[in-house]
Amino acid sequence: MLTKIITEDDYKATDNALQAIIKKGASLGGMDFLPDSDKMEFTRLGYMIKEWEDIYYPTPIIVSPLVKKIEERMSALNLKQRDTAKLLGISEGRMSELLSGKRRVSIRIAKRLRDSLNINSDFILDNL
């Protein structure tokens, strides 16, 4: 039994096995009707595929226009991430999350972006 996908062929075989379980579940009227062993196998295969895809088929991160604007202002003002975080009154970790798209800009931070980095409030609101 394969426990880790190592090659593209392993990936294809694992995906085929997962698709077979999905097809079986559909023929039974839903995944809830599968035997527990198939449900466990479905979960195992899914984790293996996710691990492989995270490495070899990563989802591209789309940088929002607001993040681009923040980075442009940081560059224009010669601010590092830690300096910008201090200016906005947030932690470096939160600043990192904002710039990476892992955390959304709150209204409180939006006001600080307007006041501290001189980013147009309409632009901020349009790109939250």
What can you tell me about this protein's structure?
This protein has seven helices and no strands. The protein has two domains: 8-56; 65-126, 434 Repressor (Amino-terminal Domain) (Orthogonal Bundle). The termini are far apart. The protein has helices spanning 8-28, 36-56, 65-76, 81-88, 92-100, 107-117, 121-126. α1 (8-28) packs antiparallel against α2. The longest helix is centred in the first third of the chain and has 21 residues, at 8-28. Helix content is 69%, strand content 0%. It has 128 residues and is mainly α.
Summarize the structure.
With 128 residues, this protein is mainly α.
CATH superfamily of the largest domain: lambda repressor-like DNA-binding domains
H and E order: HHHHHHH
Q: What percentage of amino acids are in beta strands?
A: under 5%
Q: Span between N and C termini?
A: 47 Å
Which residue ranges are poorly predicted, with pLDDT under 50 across at least 5 consecutive positions? none
Helix content: 55-70%
Largest sheet: none
Shape label: elongated
Total strands: the figure is: 0
Radius of gyration: 23 Å
Total of domains: 2
CATH top level assignment of the largest domain = Mainly Alpha
User: How many DSSP helices?
Assistant: 7
Kindly report the average pLDDT value: 90
Content-based structural category:
mainly alpha
Which topology of the largest domain does CATH recognise?
434 Repressor (Amino-terminal Domain)
Proper CATH architecture of the largest domain: Orthogonal Bundle
